[in-house]
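Extended Data, panel c. Modelled sequence:
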Amino acid sequence: MLSFPRRPLRVGLLRAAARRARSPWARIAGAALALSLAVSPGVAFAQASALLDEGKALMKKGKLAEACPKIEESYRLSPRSATLLALATCHEKQGKLATAWSEYIDLSAAARKEGNKRLEADAKARGARLEPRLPRLTVSVPRAAAVEGLEVTLDGAPVDSASWGQARPIDPGEHKVSASAPGRKKWEASVSIKRGERKAVAVPALAKDGSAAPEPAPAEEAPAKETAAATAAPDKGAAGEAKGAAGAGKGAAGAGKGAAGAGKGAAGAGKGAAAPEQTAAGPEEDAQAEEPAAVEEPEASRGASPKHAGSFVLEVGAAGGALIGLIDSGSFGDLSTYSYSYNILPEGELIAPCNDEVCHASFEPAIGPFAGGQAFVGVALSERLHLGVRALGGYRFGGGYLVVGGPSASLRFGRLWLGLTGLVGAVGQDAKVTGVKGEIPSELVDRNYGRTEVDVNAREGSLPETALVETLAFGGSVEVSLVLADLPSSSWTSGALLLSAWPTFMKGLDGFVIAAPVGIGYRFY
């Protein structure tokens, strides 16, 4: 049967080491080490607290350039959520919007781990408030410029190739973009960007660096004797020429071995080896022009078009779908040619003429396709929220129409817009007439067996088969729009192409109206 020691092996080893450390110096060193390990966290926390207090005091005085570094150092010494909140607030006040936005995202994640839902919600709200104002810069590298070993940096920090061509949040102000590659001339460009602005910088094809392979120095003319010897051995000159230098004799061979066209070729001038000048680089390499540094026109990114707060919004588009009219009662024109009768005395009857006030026609439901358009005019309260007025109208095939409008609001979630619209307007349908009824005065309802209306005396064939019935209706619609393409630019055409549906339900004065329009439109931002 196996038996295990009662005390852990690690404890036994430590105690054995303690017994061996009998010297006073060893004991003093051990005590100092234990004391430093116990005190260091407390000292760091105290320093962090003092720096945080100093930073907050400076921030209240408006000395942000001094306050933010102190708060940042405090967070480095003791990373706490409260310190990160103060740091993000300081950077936001300093105008470093992208930095503050990133810190609010980190704060939200940290608060979620801590279970602090209130702080998490506050951090998310602060980040969402900053997002519409964030500048975004796209660093693109065309295929012709993507040479081997290319390194692109933004303000000295490397830009990973996976993020080339993608818009990235950046702080407002001046920024420097540079590119370098082995054997190529370094390229740099400065770009200035403002709040909410979008810019793109294209890295040009880097020109070859002539200093990496200098041309050989011209040699003195060789004596005729050595020149003749060099001519007699063309195979050596050809070998040197194949290795990269244009020349003859020993001078050419030396240039080929030197790989730079100088070296032994230049040194061999005293011996009489003529090393002609290295062949110049092609005109395309020498005279390669650098492309413009910054391109003002923004790119079509995955995010969204620049919908800045306060900007005017206009959307127009074509729409079509089904229109269902459930208007069961109304007038179809002149009813004065009809009459109806009802009891007025125990044995008497009154024949009353019809008019629009006492007579009305009955209709069957009308269902049919319709085509038309829609328009939205409003303002962008933020990058995600648009408020305005929407109008929707169309013609129903087979007879009828829909012309409605009212206040509207749209909210964006990624590539999806969701909205609500309150509608009021006129609706008409060409429907089959089922009959005409006349109203009995309320005081005579009892004499007519409790009936409130009776059929109108219409000659057979005198009623029209169909008629246009109209009514005033009110209700609302739900907007569901998908962004097919975001097309931001600096011109008036900046906007997005949308595929939309507006399920609509309205109550008429007599009956109901249901519409299911679907359309495609363009929203100008």
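Residues 1-18, 215-309 have pLDDT under 50 and may be disordered. This feature is highlighted in the accompanying rendering.
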